[in-house]
Specification:
Mean pLDDT: 94
Distance between the termini: 43 Å
Number of strands: 17
Structural class: alpha/beta
Number of helices: 14
Length: 353
Amino acid sequence: MKNIIKILKKNKSIPMDKFINTALYDKKNGYYMKKNPFGKKGDYITSPLISNLFGEMIAIWCVSFWEHLGKPKKILLVELGPGDGSLCKDLLNVFKNFKNFYDCLEIKLLEKSDKLKKIQRNKIKNNKVKWIKDIKNINYGPIIFFGNEFFDALPIKQIYRYKNIFRERHVSLSGKDKIKFSYKKANKYLINNIKKLKLISDGNIIEYPVDEIKFINLIAKMIKKYDGGFLTLDYGYTEMQNYDTLQSISGHKYSDILLNPSFADITHHINYSLFLKILISNNLQVEKIVTQSEFLQKLGILERANILSKKINFKKKIDMFYRLKKLLHNEEMGKLFKVIFAKKKGSKFSLGF
């Protein structure tokens, strides 16, 4: 908070994307730079922490895609935002059962936070895994880009629209040590981009995910150059809408975004129709967007659970299916979380879709 107030005293106000970037990723005071937010002792729990069956299904998907690509002698898996390293650990445990794939495999973990890197390194002790800060430095493939709850934490702009007047949402000072939302007239460049991307629909809060667009454009170029695919899971929507989806989480409960920046997570819902548009504009082939429940069930997660249930006691069985419910049920993560997959045109691989 002190760091943000210091910036605001100098600049009077900052746009929402800069506020989020500072709150989450400031090198010294950013939320992800100084804390482990994952698990019961953290602020939220992700799918890999709910059940290792999630990682098993993603691993099977990766091996199947590699086979579809013709079993290249090198396959690179890039995990975007590897959290506490649990997913990568689960993936490696499965990959070791597929020797031909494992021998060809290299893994790059895209991580900004030194704090999280330390946690990940303690959990993942495997010389096939390397850490990177920028995917631009990757110069070979094929590449499988994978992200789970990665894009929702990237900064976004918010624009308030009233009739034909557009104002960009900012954060400014409110007294000595408090902050508030404020609005400034949106510049023509910003308005033109919003209109060009057809982000305007019913409602008056337009969310413009600048960083996500740059990221997806770069990933698309790398897939076209080196071959491979892009698979990501996150919570979001497929029908165009204009409303405020920003939310803050602290201690597994919703929090005021302005109350404790740098000490709470800030995320937004993903606009999957925009993802689809950008990927197609990059001349990639995109499978239909499905829910997490559909995706995992088509991969055989329930069949796998039933096989395992015959080898464990009743207490463990109840726990396993309770965790599966959190991943699959429509009132839990099953419907809210969506899955999108993009690849080079002409590919017929559609496992899970």
